[in-house]
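B., you asked whether I could sanity-check this one before it goes into the benchmark set. Here's the sequence:
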Amino acid sequence: MKSDVLIVKDLPPHLQSLDLEAIGSQVTDNDISKEAEPSEFIRTALPILQKNGVVHFLGFGNRLGFDSVPADLQRLRCRCNFHALKFAPEIQKLGSLLVQRLRGVSAMQTEMDKQLFGSNMLERPFGEKGDDAGGPSRYLALHLRFEEDMVAYSLCEFGGGEEERRELQAFRETHFPALVTRLRNTTVSPEELRSQGRCPLTPEEAGLILAALGYDRGTFIYVAGSQIYGGATRLRPLTRLYPNLVTKEDILSSDELAPLKNFSSRLAALDFIACASSDVFAVTDSGSQLSSLVSGHRVYHGRGRAPTLHPNRKRYAQILSEEGGIEWAGFQRRVRAMVDEYKRVRARPRGRTVYRQPRT
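And here's what the prediction gave me:
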């Protein structure tokens, strides 16, 4: 980025003592619309910059990530997002170790590896398990978005009966009071939500998709995400289908993870790395930020050799609703058609950020 933007790590001395909020130099997400075009930045931020000499974008997320922008800005944002931005060295090193252990070998030659690890790619000590592996171990990364907050906010039901309903309602009242207030004036049917594809996939539903696509019991699966709602009991149908299921906590020791323990975003960075480096990446919620950004990264750097499985939840709900009258062969055929639909190259829809869908 040196030829395009001057980047510094600290403000000049004459600006360091300023209270940026007090002098009106702070610009928040509320000041810039989500799909802002360059002209909005000129109207909003440029006068502040000219007056105070500095602008602080606070909570700045996804801005200038949408169409349309001039070609020079398009090139600049792609260079920035897909080439210049890197994880901190300690994240790169730990991520390299994680992927190395998942693969069982030290060789990391792909374009994805170069982008993710740079000069912080670790070499496996001589004699460590994997010297005679005969090539990289293949693994599938599955991002399960089935944490309690996701489940509660969805307003869907997952077979847990009255106990589940009470538990999730209590969680909503504590963590999503605005949602609870809004629900007092509207009626939401869990059945209707499911038919619309608005319910997160359970681990079992995700496992059935993989089985229908032909992934056998020996498939090695890395599971990304936080604590699954329902714990081991909820995961049991998936682990019965795929016993070789691991997480970052299984691959890295508690001592290795200790520096990241209290930083959820840094732990998520490890999941990003493991998912981006996988042979196949399976998504259960296309609206998830991590899944979407991993998918975009794989499209940009994967050179057509980094497949991502995107189920259409609405179509999948229709397939599952016929569970009593559909044979396994028919289920396989419809699931494969559903997943193949995503693979078609199409224009990026309006409102879809370029970082999540780099193809135009």
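One thing to flag: The two ends are 23 Å apart (CA to CA). Otherwise nothing jumped out at me.
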